[in-house]
Structure formats: C-alpha cells, structure tokens
Amino acid sequence: MPVPLLDFQGQYRPLREQLLATIARVCDSQRFIGGPEVENFEKEIATYLGVPHAVGLSSGTDAILVALMAIGIRPGDEVIVPTFSFFATAGCVSRAGGVPRLVDIDPLTYNIDPAAAAAAITSRTKAIIPVHLYGQCAEMDPILDLADRCGLTVIEDAAQAIGSTYKGRHAGTMGRAGCFSFFPSKNLGAFGDAGLLTTNDEALAREVRLLRNHGAEPKYFHKRIGANFRLDALQAAVLRVKLPHLDRWSAMRVANANRYDELFKASGIADQITLPARAADRNHTFNQYVVRVPQRDAVRTRLESLGIGTEIYYPLPFHLQECFAPLGYRQGDFPAAEAAANETLALPIYGELTAAQQREVVAAIAA
C-alpha cells in the first residue's frame, strides 16, 4: 500500500467543522491583525508551556531573527550554532549581522555537542543556539552552565520540539528565549506560516513585541527598527483549536515510534540500521522519526518506487553550503554532521499512521 510521508487529512477531518467555524468567526469579526485571537492564543500557549511571556510571530524563522535582534547582535558578533539543522538556525544569525560559529553534533541525538560548543567560544561570542532537532531536546544543562560561565545568551531553537521536555522542563523555556514554528508539518501546525517566541524575561518580551510591529510605539512613532513579524489572527485562531489536542497527537507519534522500534527489531535487520536514540532524561515527541541506513539513497529510491514517502533532513550541513563558503569551513571539519547528512532517512511518523502502514514501511526496508 502507498504510505505518504505526511497525511494531514486524518488530523483535519475530526476538527473540520470546529476549524471552519473558527475561521468564520474571525472573518465575521474582520479583525485579522492582532486582536483577541492572538492575545488569547498567547495566553493559552504560555500556560501550556509554563512561561510568563509568549509572543506570537509570523514564523519560526522570524522568531529566531527577532530574538537575535532583541538581544542586540551586532556585526561581527559570533553566535554558536550546530552545523546540522534547518537553514534558518544559521541563516538568521547572518541576517542579524552576526557570524555563525559552526560546531559539530552528537552523532546519536543529532543535537549540538556541548563540548564542541565550549571549544568554539572566542572573545567575540555573544550567544548560542541549541537546536532541539526532530523533537528531542538538546543536552541543556551543560549548555546553560557554559553560557552562565561565559556570559552568553541562550536562544533555544525549539521549532520541531513543542511539548518535548528535558528533566521536566519544556523545550523553549530554559534559555533566555525559545523559538517555535507552527509550519503545517509540525506537531502543532497552523494553516500556513506562524511562529512564537517564549521567555521568562519581561524586558525581552517587551522588546520583541515592539520589534514585531516595526518598532512602533505608539503607531507611526518608531523607537527601534523592527519589521513586520506579526502573527495573523486567522493562524492564531486555528492554533487555539488545535492546542488542546497537542499532547494526544504527540503521544500518538511516540506510540508509532515505539511500534517502529519493535517492528525493526523483529525484522532481522536491526543490526544493519540505527534507530533514533532516546536520552533517558528527556522525552522525544518525534516530529521526525529518523533512521540511519547504509546505501541510504538507493534505499530511498526503492521506497519511493513502492509509494512510500521519505525525506532527508538535512542533506548538506551549513559548513558545506555555498552561501557560507566565506566562513572558511571545509569538508571533514565536522565529521558527525557529515555522516548524518549522508546516512539519515526520515520515515512517515504522523499520528494517524496505521500499524499496517508501518509494517509496510519496515517490510520494504527489510526487503
């Protein structure tokens, strides 16, 4: 049977009438920018995450960018980021005028290597962005300790990790700022681009709210040079409908991940592939279920011929991207990231995936 990489219909259909009624409510109000939908969503998600401040934004990318702007990154300031992540993590550093200081990853969790981060600090380092990749938190205690000792700001890239926890603390609530994406494929997905910044710092929250609206306070009087980073009311309304279901949907992904683990172990090929690592002190909400497969590209081509969707997150680390060539990195500088780029394969993991579909996926890989 065909197994798509993503299938939004299973999540959408049970909520269809509620979602359409919500959209109609916003349309009838004609309040599309700011207003009660955005304000209420910010309050509700702040309560869910256990933070005092949550600021709705236009995307996860913009959340990272505005966080860097708000902490005052200046030209020449270095920001430590893992070389293996979605492009926005490093791209926003450059857009803010900073210099991405790239480091390698932990080969098991794919998250930033704290020891590599420590070794990369220079007199110009101002911040560090740990990424909670695929839905599992980075090892935050040593990162937070390092930042405290060296006077660095920690901005968590939690775009893929809403609902994940590290030693009981939610992703995005441990650093000075947390950045979330509600791209439709996320565990909590909007009907387009949307994002969020969380913080325990009232002054930072105030600065982000200012910057998201062109730095204007009051209207037409600009204290800062910001941009249009506002969250649409329609997206906020959709997210308000979905938020109460988030934990259940994440639990469905975890259940599917557990089933994959068991199916692979029973398939006779468990010694030929590497299953996702799960650190004991954190939970993994599986925005992606990523395995390492020998001859990855050939396996992927075969699966696609059978109608089984896969994806490669991410095929080229930052240090090998053409746009970052001026940084001076070369092939071989970050071997763990390069190996992950060559060997990893993401399999279908959405909550509504059936056991029969999972058996199809595993059988095809085994074959």
In brief, what are we looking at here?
The chain is of the alpha/beta class and 367 residues long.
Main features:
367 residues, alpha/beta, Aspartate Aminotransferase, domain 2, Aspartate Aminotransferase, domain 1, 2 domains, 7-stranded mixed beta sheet, globular
- Kindly report the CATH topology of the largest domain: Aspartate Aminotransferase, domain 2
The total of beta strands comes to 11
CATH class of the largest domain: Alpha Beta
Roughly how much helix do the residues carry, as a percent range?
25-40%
Q: Give the count of helical stretches.
A: 12
- SSE run: HHEHEHEHEHEEEEEHHHEHHEH
Helix-and-strand structural type = alpha/beta
Described by the principal axes of the CA atoms, the overall outline is globular
How far apart the termini lie comes to 15 Å
Runs with pLDDT <50, length 5+?
A: none
What count of structural domains? 2
CATH architecture of the largest domain: 3-Layer(aba) Sandwich
Describe the structure.
The protein has two domains: 9-244, Aspartate Aminotransferase, domain 2 (3-Layer(aba) Sandwich), CATH 3.40.640; 246-366, Alpha-Beta Complex (Aspartate Aminotransferase, domain 1). The chain is 39% helix and 13% strand. It has helices at residues 9-29, 36-49, 60-70, 88-95, 114-119, 140-150, 202-211, 233-242, 246-267, 296-305, 335-343, 355-366; strands at residues 53-57, 78-82, 99-103, 125-128, 153-157, 165-166, 169-170, 177-181, 195-199, 289-292, 344-347. Strands 1-9-8-5-4-2-3 form a seven-stranded mixed β-sheet, with helices on both faces. It has a two-stranded antiparallel sheet with strand order 6-7. α1 (9-29) packs across α8 and α2 (36-49) packs across α8. The radius of gyration is 21 Å and the shape is globular. The relative contact order is 0.17.
